Amino acid sequence: MRFRAGCREMAEAVGVIASTVATRTTKPTLQNVFLRAEDGILELVATDLEVSLRLKLAEAEVDKGGEVLVNAARLSAVLRAVEDMGHVDFEADGEGNASVKAGSNQYRLPTEDPEDFPDVPGFDVKKPFRLSYPDLTGLFKKTRYATAPDAGRYAMNGVLMEIDAERLRTVATDGKRLALAERPMPEDAAESLKGGERLRVVVPPKAMLLLERVVDRVIREESPALEAGLSADGRILSFRTGEAVLGALLVEGEFPPYQDVLPEGFEEKLEVPRESFLSAVRRANVLNQGRESLAMVFTFGGDDVEIASSDPNAGDARVAFPLPWSKKKPLEVGFNPALLIEGLVAMDAEEFTLELKDSKSAALLREGDEFLYVVMPIQIV
Amino acid sequence: MDEPRTILHVDMDAFYASIEQRDDPSLRGKPVIVGGDGERGVVCAASYEARRFGVHSALASVIAKRRCPHAHFLPVRMSHYVAVSREIFAILRDFTPLCEPLSIDEAFLDVTGSLRLFGGGRAIAEAIRARIKEELDLTASVGVASSKYVAKVASDHDKPDGLVLVPFGEEAAFLAPLPIEVFWGVGPVTAQTLRRLGIEKVDDIQRADPALLEARLGNLADHLGRLARGQDPRPVQPGRRRKSMGSEVTLGEDCADRDALAGHLARQASTVAFGLRSEGLRGRTVVLKIRRPDRGLVTRSETLEHPTDDEVVIVRTAKRLLAEKLPMPAGGVRLIGLQVSGLDPADGQLGLFGASPETEKRRATLKGADAVRRRFGERMIQPASALGHGRRTEASPQAAARAEARGRVKPRPPGGRDEGQSGTSRTNERGRS
To answer: What is the CATH number of domain A2-116?
Structure first.
């Protein structure tokens, strides 16, 4: 195969591809990018068996068709090094070698037989529907940090996505806190979902990060057209935007019954300025060096809330923050500071509502109607 | 310098051996050795009666037996000692929260702030000793001084059952006649260097030319000079936490049988997990440690996603390390051990969805097993896979009786255990009699 492409475009596309491939894998072939030139079109394909990506490079001038596998990280490094060189000429000799030329630079890379590379489907879905890209990524940003690192009793290692004609909702939880974000469906997207279509899937966080990377670096539009749909067997959610198709193997298993643990709301509601509260929590947290089990103790009562952190080895911190407490009885409640900070960072508004009940019940942080964050306390002994 | 501090160093006398003598009055006044009594067993503690024969901790049991053939050899009952230790620390913390444990039977206390309440360093030391004697029937030696270092030297000065107070300002005079080995950081090699310089006692350092010491000893000179004057500004740190918990065994003979080694690991995991739960800790890293026949040490470790205090998780990880990460040394393994590090207090984080029924069942099982262990001894409950292994190093009559009780424990078939129940076998009714 032989083609010519712009250095920068090619470097960006292969960079995104390289972040798709499996880093630690028992199948070495998955560390490659699959290059296919056919009918004058160049396509790049990569997968880690959970997420797959197909990118068509419209600008590439294909001289001779063919298929070849090249190590994605190495090809990316080469292209990164020559990205200011105008255009790059790629040629595979069909005997295990590929040459990459850009300006006065020449590289040889070993290639592999595409025979063993897994079959990566295209945008092969039952009922495609449209989504608003800014809404989708916005909602994921507000929730995806709250997933659990691995599957436990429930499928908490992914973001629950609920879609119907009315709204798009994402939920993530690790069992200690829960983040829920939703937005109404824009009209054109709602149109494509008419007929009572409802989708409820758990998406691996990597898939959405990759979608953002594709849009930022290859599509380069702020609000590109985005289509999505489920595969016939219902196991893969695919997205299509521009010339890119991304497939995500959905997280299997049951998402926890999150509706059951959403409190209706509590009596004690406090309006809190977000930035300054976040900065107070951070000030109280400076001596805590990543010890999750260490509770940060909030004492509500009178005009100020006292935020205290104490580590027998590192020292103590005490921060007073103006937040009047209307009840006579003060409330002392402990939280993992990292969980609080993540929720506060995910918000955009200047103010949020903090709702509390007692030292054993969750705290609710609300940002308008769009975002709800529920954190369980740490029992103070 | 700030106001003089009053620091106590409390050190239990022959802790393990004293507990055994206390629990079995027939052993009182007799030489008692706690440790493994197999071919490669090691002494963990020796009563003062045994020490007279040159038996001390870390001595090979074979040599200990030669030196003191009539000694009573007893197996280590760690969980029992831990329980007694907890009672001792509860007494110490009645006098000040500034209590820094150094080990299971040793602690520093800064009582500067409690002096008025309890009436002076000596009075506090006497009160502590009296309470330990009265409530636990054990003796402690206490050193009282203005620094940690001098307090520690003082507690050792009149052991056992001693109380030595070094008044503020008299530290140098107290230390002067002592041999240089009392210094922290002076081992046999440095001691030899010092002797060659004609320095035998602390006194010699106090009088030596600092420039000469510096030239010969480098950085150590300054450290020794300050210690010789009794200066040690280190504060008592109550928060000093345990960093790891482990268990190891020197095998009766070198062993290359992975199944047998896995059996040892199963038992060690249950000991370590019990220890963690007893102290309310969870660990994140499991370390497998072996010593080759040539005594070379090999360790392999794995860090878990979630901290644990469950033997099932610990042993699963340790066995995986043994099976996958550890090439079997030629000639087998001389010592095998496991350690859990990265410890943190088990936290009180509440969950949104509650514990799963399986988790709750598992916690209840562990709690019940721990209660039996506390009451009847740690060996009453063992993972089934540990049965038939690792008894070599303990063969006292008690251990034999326990082994018999274990023989009545019905092991589960291999592979027949589920996550929720683990391989922990239960004692039968007879175990309770």
So the answer is: 3.10.150.10
Cross-chain Cβ contact A261/B305 below 8 Å: no
Contact residues on chain B for A150, CB-CB shorter than 8 A: 305
Count how many Cα atoms sit within 13 Å of the Cα of residue B68 in the half-sphere of its side chain: 25
How far is residue A373's CA from residue B236's CA, in Å, rounded to a whole number?
Answer: 42
Report d(CA B264, CA B295) in Å as an integer.
Answer: 19
Q: Which superfamily does A263-375 belong to?
A: DNA Polymerase III, subunit A, domain 2 (3.10.150.10)
| CB pair distance less than 8 Å for A313 and B348 | no
Contact B352 A176 (CB under 8 A): yes
Identify the CATH homologous superfamily for domain B244-390: DNA polymerase, Y-family, little finger domain (3.30.1490.100)
Residue B49 annotated to the active site = no
For an interface test with A, the pick among B242, B349, B358, B362 (most A C-beta atoms closer than 10 Å) comes out as B349
Which CATH superfamily includes the segment(s) B172-228? 5' to 3' exonuclease, C-terminal subdomain (1.10.150.20)
| Residue located via tokens 């860090």 | B303
DSSP A3-22: EEEEHHHHHHHHHHHHTTS-
**Residues forming CATH 3.10.150.10 domain(s) in chain A:** 2-116, 129-258, 263-375
pLDDT tens track, chain B, 433 positions: 457 899 999 999 999 999 999 999 999 999 999 988 777 778 889 999 999 999 988 888 889 999 999 999 998 887 788 888 888 998 998 888 888 888 889 999 999 888 887 888 999 999 999 999 999 999 999 999 999 999 999 999 998 999 999 999 999 999 999 988 887 667 777 788 888 888 888 898 888 888 888 887 777 788 888 888 888 888 888 765 677 888 888 888 899 999 999 999 999 999 899 888 877 788 889 999 998 888 788 899 988 877 888 999 999 999 999 988 888 888 899 999 999 988 876 667 788 887 666 677 777 788 778 777 777 766 666 666 666 554 444 333 343 334 333 333 333 333 333 333 333 332 232 323 2
User: Which single residue is written with the structure tokens 């063919």?
Assistant: A66
Smallest CA–CA distance from B353 into chain A, residue: A175
pTM: 0.59
Give chain A positions within 8 Å (CB) of B237: 312-313
Cβ neighbours of B100 in A, within 8 Å: none
What is the distance between the alpha carbons of residues B389 and B315, in angstroms, rounded to a whole number?
15
Sign of CA dihedral A201, A206, A210, A216: positive
User: How far A253 CA sits from the closest chain B CA (Å)?
Assistant: 15
Write the class of the CATH domain A129-258: alpha beta
Q: Does B368 touch chain A (CB under 8 A)?
A: no
H or E segment at A38?
strand A32-38
Of the residues A176, A177, A260, A372, the best mutation for testing chain B's interface (the one with the most B CB atoms within 10 Å of its CB) is A176
Enumerate residues 6+ apart whose C-beta is below 8 A from B154.
Answer: B9, B143, B144, B145, B164, B165, B166, B174
Residues from chain B that touch A336, judged by Cβ atoms under 8 A, are: 349
Interface predicted TM-score of the whole assembly (ipTM), two decimals: 0.83
Record: contact A295-B348, CB cut-off 8 A = yes
